[in-house]
Amino acid sequence: MRWRDHPTVEVTERIAVDPDAAWAAVTDIALPVDASPELQDVTWLDGATEPVVGARFAGRNRNEHLGEWTTTCTVTEVDPPRRWTWEVAAGDEPWSTWGFEVDPVRDGVVVRQFLRMGPGRSGLNIAIDAMPDREGRIIEVRLAEHRDAMAGTLAALKARLEG
Q1: What angle do CA 149, 142, 12 make, to 5 degrees?
Q2: Three-class HEC string of 107-141
Q3: How many C-beta atoms lie closer than 10 Å to residue 134's C-beta?
């Protein structure tokens, strides 16, 4: 696994809820805060209050291996009530692209959260640069951290929406 291949991870959860309720929940940028061991806080920027293309928000993060940092995220796609995505960037190219999808099914919805790394460089690239022979393992560990956090987010979402 190489950074240049834009590694991805996704988690899905089937939830017995109306699609509109699921959409309202996944477009709340604070949703992951309660379940994530890393994301500490999020705040809309520039007067934004909801996901619209071009809206920005800041995320404050903490990780025992990577320290503390703040990210600036820009909403890149909104297709209500189905999908929305945002990029995390500090320059011309995003470090990562994140998103949620809501797919209606007969008895509720399937919610999908996903992440694609790169193409821009992130803090993870410091470790990769220092240990290029361990690039695959470094990425694998980071993807597992993200997978666990996303699974926690979707489990909390399911519990909240199903009561």
Answers
A1: 40
A2: CEEEEEEEEEECCCCCCHHHHHHHCHHHHHHHHHH
A3: 13
CATH number of the domain at 141, please: 3.30.530.20
User: Are 53 and 45 within 8 A, CB to CB?
Assistant: no
pLDDT per residue as tens digits for the range 103-118? 999 999 999 999 999 9
The pair of three-digit structure tokens given for residue 3, joined into one six-digit string = 């950074």
Structure-block tokens of residue 21:
């309720």
Write down the pTM of the prediction: 0.93
Q: What average pLDDT score do residues 134-149 get?
A: 95
Q: How far apart, in whole angstroms, are the C-alpha atoms of residue 7 and residue 106?
A: 32
Q: How many CB atoms lie within 10 A of CB 5?
A: 10
Distance of alpha carbon 29 from alpha carbon 33, whole angstroms: 8
- 58 with 42: CB under 8 angstroms? yes
H/E stretch holding 62 reads: strand 56-63
Its domain, for residue 14, covers 3-162
Number of domains in the chain: 1
Query: How would you classify the pairing of strands 83-89 and 67-79?
Result: antiparallel
Express each pLDDT in 46-74 by its tens digit.
999 999 999 999 999 998 877 898 999 99
